[in-house]
Amino acid sequence: MDRLEQLMEKQIEFNANLLKMVQKDAVGVHAATPLHGITGIFSGAGIENPVVSAYIRPAGLVGYLRRIPTVNEDPRFTAITGFTAPDGVRPTTSCADAQSGYMKSCELTARFGLNRMDTKEIEMDKTMLRANRGDRTDLVLLGELFGLSGASPDSIDDSNVLEVVTKAEMVTAAINIERQIMGDFWTGLVATGSFPGLDTQIATGQLDARTGGACPALDSDVKDFSHNDVCGTTLDIVEYMSMMAWYLLHNATRSGLDPVDWAVVMRPELWFELSACWPCSYLSNRCQTASGTNILTVNDTSNVDMRDAMRNGMYIDINGRRYRVILDDGIFEENSSSAGSSLAAGQYASSVYFVPFTARGLPVCYMEYLDYRKASADVALLQGKENFWWTDNGMFSWSMTDRKWCYQLHLKTEPRVVLRTPQLAGKIQNIMYSPLQHLRSYDPDSVYNFDGGVSLAPASTRFAVWMPQGGR
User: Fold this and answer.
1) Higher pLDDT among residues 15 and 51, named by residue
2) Can you tell me the distance from the alpha carbon of 63 to that of 102, in angstroms, rounded to the nearest whole number?
3) Taking a C-beta distance cutoff of 8 angstroms, is the pair 104, 83 a contact?
């Protein structure tokens, strides 16, 4: 092994050990990702503008919902579920006592979750370091890091993220809390410290919040596609979605809640496959002979035109009504590893949701959050010594701890998703699809999350009379 190889091995070992030390977040140790300086990830010689973002941002339903501040810890949402059958005997004379009955109601409730993220510890006098005059600080970001999910603080953007260490650390914390909320929004469970996710609320078995009694009048419409192909013939996706849309519309019109603004929500991979076969299936639905032969032949461009219009306009026509489509990659997806024998390699399964936004113009599905502004009277008594502040109309709160020249920022929010009318919501679960290629994911735990690179760049080798033999 020659001298250069030995030096390179020593450098790699040193950088690995340094990275481990930095990631420990020990008190008093600068642990933030270095942007510039000798190990800065943007300090490489000859870096050209712009710096391109290859980060896949999450997108989903959260960004479409209203965000409402509140301080009510245990809200109650009441619905009239029906009227009992009259008791007594039907009278045969006008002046005899007649039968009478009772009105019935059911209460639903909601619960806050807790979403928390921290920055790495930052040492003030390390943030200003530059490797040398070739360490450029005029870099420009091409792309965006925020803007699609609606689950991140609006008060923070990605400006100066390539230069200001504290800003970069705040952006990292905000992105991590955004990704956490995206997962909680659908699959969150109280047992994990999350708010109850929408997937657990669009369900049957609804209970009265006060008594625990069953409230079947508020049950959602839940159907199982049994891991059949979305474009297959064993089960017909047009039949399932048409029946669900009709059932939910019946609930709305017969209870006086129409018009309802619904959205059809699904994963982008499922939408691409569904939209490919929907035009033909929709146009030829029930156009079959007794033997199952399709008597309708579509041989012009109507299928392709309808498919392209659906994809570009993000809508789907069901029973002559047009529903907007929202893609959400926070929806849980099964694969061959998690679903066992139900799915083969290259097959996936997830759900299609019908989510009501408003009923008769009033919001029935929305986000609430604990309003930190309401603590202002108590905070005022601290006489300027507080080390926390709120942003985004009280939805997010930042705090700071410091130790001499080191400091760390902490971010939290306590949101919840509220579904006032679960009887107007539905889901078709276990729909299988086999895309030619799976899309990249924002989720760091997904096998389709691709990042790469380093959080600590290797320092260039230096030699000096005062350094140990071998340089560093």
Assistant:
1) 51
2) 41
3) yes
Peptide bond just before 216 cis, omega within 30 deg: no
Q: Model pTM?
A: 0.88
- At position 178, the amino acid (one-letter code) is E
Tokens found for residue 364 = 């029935």
Handedness of CA 18, 19, 25, 29 (dihedral sign): positive
Three-class secondary structure of residue 197 per DSSP: coil
Distance separating alpha carbons of residues 325 and 345, to the nearest angstrom: 28
The dihedral region occupied by 205, where left means phi > 0, alpha psi between -120 and 50, and beta the remainder, is left
d(CA 327, CA 314): 9
What pLDDT does residue 22 have?
44
The structure tokens listed for 262 are 């619904």
Identify which of 337, 355, 356, 342 has the alpha carbon closest to the alpha carbon of residue 430: 342
Nearest to 418 by CA among 105, 77, 153: 77
Average of per-residue pLDDT values in the chain: 90
Model confidence pLDDT, tens digit, residues 266-291 = 999 999 999 999 998 888 776 665 55
3-class secondary structure for 352-411? EEEEEEEECCEECEEEEEECHHHHHHHHHCCCCCCCEEEEHHHCEEEEEEEECCEEEEEE
Residue-level pLDDT at 3:
46
398-440 pLDDT, tens per residue? Answer: 999 999 999 999 999 999 999 999 999 999 999 999 999 999 9
Cβ pair 295, 288 in contact under 8 A:
yes
